């Protein structure tokens, strides 16, 4: 059984995980992803939840359906996911990170040094 967080709808967490699988190369453009029933059984969730996740991914252009064959990864899925994740990071996560840095008295120079050290390896 898969553990889901309480702070985000399950179907959105499932969408995020599928996007991560696409970014990691587990699924590539043109690949078939698990059917609604397969994913429902793997994650032990209601099929309606999987349908909501797949509908969201379809509306975003990340997956598409082939009648009678299932869901497949779109040709430009990686680009769409990267753009969505960058936007989410810049608009949601980075402002919170900056707020935490300010509260904790961490100067941006400290982060810059860590960033540089991370990329020197």
Automatic annotation (TrEMBL):
Gene3D superfamilies in alphabetical order: 1.10.287.100, Winged helix-like DNA-binding domain superfamily/Winged helix DNA-binding domain
Transmembrane segments: none
Pfam families, A to Z: GntR
Record-level Gene Ontology MF annotations: DNA binding; DNA-binding transcription factor activity
Domain HTH gntR-type: residue ranges: 8-76
Record keyword Transcription present: yes
Keywords, ordered alphabetically: DNA-binding, Transcription, Transcription regulation
Name this protein carries in UniProt: GntR family transcriptional regulator
């Amino acid at each position: 059984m898969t553990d889901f967080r309480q702070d985000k709808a399950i179907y959105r967490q499932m969408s995020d995980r599928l996007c991560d699988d696409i970014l990691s190369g587990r699924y590539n453009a043109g690949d078939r992803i698990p059917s609604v029933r397969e994913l429902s059984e793997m994650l032990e969730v209601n099929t309606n939840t999987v349908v909501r996740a797949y509908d969201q991914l379809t509306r975003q252009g990340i997956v598409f359906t082939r009648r009678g064959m299932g869901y497949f990864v779109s040709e430009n899925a990686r680009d769409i996911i990267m753009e969505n994740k960058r936007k989410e990071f810049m608009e949601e996560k980075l402002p919170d990170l900056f707020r935490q840095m300010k509260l904790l008295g961490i100067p941006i120079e400290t982060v810059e040094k860590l960033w540089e050290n991370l990329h020197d390896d």
